[in-house]
Amino acid sequence: MARISIREESVSLDRPFLVEGLPGVGLVGKIATDHLIEEFSMTHYASVYCEGLPRIGVYHEEDDELKPPVRLYADPERNLLALQSEVPVSGSGAPEFAACISGWFEEHEVTPIYLSGRPAEKEGSPEVYGVATGDGSVHLDRAGIVPPRETGFISGPTGALLNQATESDIDSVGLIAQSNPQFPDPEAARALIQGGIAPITGIEVNVDRLLEQAERIKDQREQLAQQMQQAGDDESTQAKPLGMYQ
């Protein structure tokens, strides 16, 4: 049965923002979301049991508690939620997952911030662009985030989530960062945080540790990034220009 199982009923949130961290190109969304969870010591608020997710148990080093692969974390002080995923969502399961989690977002008046990497050759700091559904453009305008310079699309599970938001006409924001297409990209994740997440949510985030640990993050996440490459567009979230299809 599809459901979001709340673990911490005492946590109180008021129309929070949510940062989405599904694996994708450069693992930019996952790296950024994982950093926020660690930096703010966010609480494991809820477990996600939606159709379309793999039925596996996840364990972490020095911890004997098994966890589901997709979880929600909360920081009531900053009125912030984070969606953490340890595994890709299959292309065939993405629509069911998107309908399940989006329904919960709408019910609890959550404004999701969806994250995606755009494979690109970068010069200097990665550029960050924004798209929106519903009244999400208000947040982009307030933060001074510009739309992409080309016509394109966002694929994979994050694309399914944005498609669901468009169909339901609910408020959401999609952030796109230029990213390394082959390896984990902490620099692009930093750009997403500083150039998108922080100005939209109004929170202050220290990214020094993210950059200091860039090499370790690259090593730890490289295997997952390779899996995402092998999985192809169906499971790997990414923004792509339409090019010849325009």
Write up what this structure looks like.
The strands form 2 sheets. An 8-stranded mixed β-sheet has the order 1-3-4-5-2-6-9-7, with helices on both faces. A two-stranded antiparallel ribbon has the order 8-10. The chain has a single domain, classed as 3-Layer(aba) Sandwich (Rossmann fold). It is α/β, with parallel strands linked by helices. It contains 7 helices and 10 strands.
What keywords describe this structure?
24% strand; eight-stranded mixed beta sheet; 246 residues; 10 strands; Rossmann fold
Q: Tell me the strand order in the biggest sheet.
A: 1-3-4-5-2-6-9-7
Q: Helix count?
A: 7
Quick one: CATH superfamily?
A: PAC-like subunit
Strand content: 15-25%
Order of helices and strands: EEHEEEHEEHEHEHHHE
Return the CATH class: Alpha Beta
Report the CATH architecture: 3-Layer(aba) Sandwich
Q: Output the CATH topology.
A: Rossmann fold
Query: Percentage of helical residues?
Result: 25-40%
Biggest sheet statistics: 8 strands, mixed
Query: Could you say how many structural domains there are in total?
Result: 1
Number of strands: 10
Principal-axes shape call? globular
Secondary structural class: alpha/beta
Rg on CA atoms, Å: 16 Å
Mean pLDDT: 89
Cα distance spanning the termini: 40 Å
| Poorly predicted regions | none
